[in-house]
Specification:
This protein is an alpha/beta fold. Helix content is about 30%, strand content about 10%. Helix 2 links the parallel strand 2 and strand 3. It is globular, with a radius of gyration of 18 Å.
Length: about 280
């Protein structure tokens, strides 16, 4: 099955399509890699925004509102608005770029994409990179926040033991099994199925074809008739799984923004220890 058989293929773009858009005033191309990688060479016209490390560990209403306001402002400073086409990329189809896409979908953006395969695919296609930096012109956009795309801790808590909701742990095996504890407690959200986010990618760092993704999730009981809540440590890897599920037509996917750092630190929330099963 070809990748074009994704339910929402428009969420991804290719080096060939991007090449034809370079220089367009309607394009905002965002490189989400670390600054040193950007400085060594990037796609012409790209602006830099490494949003790794911008995490929220308290998804109660006031901190959540403040955090999302900060993110929207940082995007505005890089020239993003709701009228421009926005394309995020990194080395491959990675979690940084996927998280950028998720943020903009949450803010109501309808024309945002991820460069499938990232700058690796760009280089493999024979296209040039540059070390010349572009100064972004700040923009403004009025967010139309889509709360149904985000899960806070209370949403996850109220989802436990519901047969119509699947919680997906996208962390590494070591995190899931408590060998690498990155919060006050090790463990997992009760009832979560585990599938590390890297399983969404093929050997070239692109999203797997639709048929492979569908079968991989179906085998774990994650099907499109259910609401799915992916989580990781801080909402990055789970954003990657959010995009994978969006690609194959899941209508209800909510990224748990606070993820394990919030859940594991809150001693009032239930956990399970998969290694004791």
């Amino acid at each position: 099955m070809e990748k074009t058989e994704y339910t929402h293929p428009e969420l991804l773009t290719t080096p060939e399509k991007l090449k034809g858009k370079l220089g367009s005033p309607n394009l905002c191309l965002v490189d989400t890699r670390p600054a040193d990688r950007f400085a060594q060479g990037h796609i012409p016209g790209a602006i830099h925004f490494d949003l790794f490390g911008l995490s929220l560990v308290d998804t109660s209403p006031a901190p959540l509102k403040a955090f999302m306001s900060m993110i929207s402002h940082l995007l505005e400073m890089r020239g993003v608005n709701l009228e421009k086409e926005v394309i995020f990329y990194e080395d491959n189809s990675g979690m940084r770029a996927a998280r950028g896409l998720w943020f903009l979908e949450y803010f109501g953006h309808r024309n945002v994409h991820l460069l499938d395969g990232g700058i690796q695919a760009w280089r493999e296609a024979g296209y040039a990179v540059t070390t010349e930096a572009v100064s972004p012109k700040a923009a403004q956009f009025k967010t139309a926040e889509r709360r149904e795309l985000l899960a806070a801790a209370e949403d996850v808590l109220h989802s436990l033991n519901k047969k119509t909701i699947c919680i997906v742990d996208t962390r590494s095996d070591d995190e899931y099994m408590g060998r690498n504890i990155r919060a006050a407690r090790g463990g997992a959200v009760p009832g979560a199925v585990h599938l590390e986010w890297t399983n969404n990618l093929d050997s070239k760092g692109k999203y797997k074809p639709a048929a492979e993704l569908k079968e991989m999730y179906r085998s774990l009981g994650v099907t499109s008739d259910k609401e799915v809540i992916p989580y990781c440590q801080g909402g990055y890897r789970s954003a990657h799984t959010y995009l994978a599920l969006r690609l194959i037509g899941f209508p209800k996917v909510r990224n748990y923004l606070g993820s394990w750092k919030e859940w594991g630190d809150r001693l009032d929330l239930p956990i399970e220890k998969p290694w004791e099963k």
